[in-house]
Design brief:
EgtD, EgtD_Methyltrsf_superfamily, eight-stranded mixed sheet, binds N,N,N-trimethyl-histidine, L-histidine N(Alpha)-methyltransferase, globular, L-histidine N(alpha)-methyltransferase activity, EC 2.1.1.44
Length: about 325
């Protein structure tokens, strides 16, 4: 079957639920000004993130891929023929490992990637359709909340939701509870949730992963301002900001900021919003929480998501959990 007839794209971003940019205004109105991390991922930001994933200092991607290579066959055997919903799919590189294992078993394949970046979603869907002749793709352009609440009816009897790459780390503990609740509510009994989480480890390793020698993470952080500029007709001057990433051992999280290097007034015309930054003032762009494999499983269980199997690497740097509702 030709590629186009195996592809469906559903557009939910921007602004299908709530006014577009409302969250930006809210974040920039806090005492510590913040912007939600989803604004990293315009086309350029998604591309920069793919580069981050290949950096020598950024261990998570390569470690998780290693685990998935070990576990994929087992995962596919346990879950049987399942359609796969992936939250924050990006390049879908990790999913290829699962698709390969499913294809080897002759299972029919339906993949539903959800991503806020339409350009990377469409590019990777086309590449997948080209490489997997028996694959159907339903791409959903939107946030996780939007995607999960607009999932089309199942084409296969069962579904697995995957949330890889420790994107969970972007959520505060409160948001995390809410999120697990959504996952649980989006699954039928017996269906699966596949979760990848970055684990607590020595601060030196963590800080190096977010302060790479080539400055790609700094570029990724600054690109958030460029995204706000084009999307909301803003006036951020990218030269007036500096990347900062530190590990907060107390909270077990990397915290990313952009430091204002001047006294500056920021205007986002499309949002009818202005604010001021003092020299040295921080704009908080991301938390990246680091987890404990047992604790996160206890939290999942609390939301009726019981671990079927969990995997880690030799160094215990990253964990992958297969849970079942
Ligand atoms: C995609 C959220 C998992 O927190 O490690 C990488 C994003 N930020 N380098 C992470 C990120 C800076 C990444 N997540």
């Amino acid at each position: 079957t030709p590629i186009q007839s195996r592809l469906n794209v559903i557009y939910l971003e921007p602004g299908q639920q709530g006014r577009d940019g409302e969250d930006v205004v809210l974040g920039l109105s806090q005492p510590l000004k913040t912007v939600p991390p989803k604004y990293f991922y315009d086309g350029r930001g998604s591309h920069l993130f793919e580069q981050i994933c290949q950096l020598p200092e950024y261990y998570p991607t390569r470690t998780e891929m290693g685990i998935l290579h070990q576990a994929a066959q087992e995962i596919v055997e346990i879950t049987g023929a399942c359609e796969l919903v992936e939250l924050g799919s990006g390049s879908s590189l990790k999913t290829r490992i699962l698709l390969d294992a499913a294809q080897a078993k002759g299972q029919s394949l339906h993949y539903l990637p959800i991503d806020v970046s339409g350009s990377i979603l469409k590019d990777s869907a086309l590449a997948l359709l080209n490489d997997y002749p028996n694959l159907a793709v339903t791409g959903i352009i939107g946030t996780y909340e939007q995607g999960l609440s607009h999932l089309p009816p199942r084409k296969l009897p069962e579904r697995m939701i995957s949330f890889l790459g420790s994107t969970l780390g972007n959520l505060t503990p409160g948001e995390c509870e809410q999120f697990f609740q959504w996952i649980q509510a989006s699954l039928k009994p017996q269906e699966y949730f596949l979760l990848g989480v970055d684990l607590v480890k020595p601060p030196k390793i963590l800080e190096a992963a977010y302060n790479d020698g080539q400055g790609i993470t700094a570029e990724f952080n600054l690109n958030l301002l460029a995204h706000l500029n084009w999307r909301f007709d803003g006036n951020f001057n990218l030269n007036a900001w500096q990347h900062r990433a530190i590990y907060n051992a107390q909270a077990q999280q990397i915290e990313m900021y952009l430091v204002s290097l001047a006294s500056q007034q920021i205007t986002l015309n499309a949002l009818d919003f202005s604010c001021e930054f003092q020299p040295g003032e921080l704009l908080h762009t991301e938390i990246s929480r680091k987890f404990n494999l047992e604790q996160i499983q206890a939290q999942l269980r609390h939301h009726q998501l019981a671990t079927v199997q969990a995997w880690t690497d030799e160094q215990n740097w990253f964990g992958v959990i297969l849970a079942q509702r």
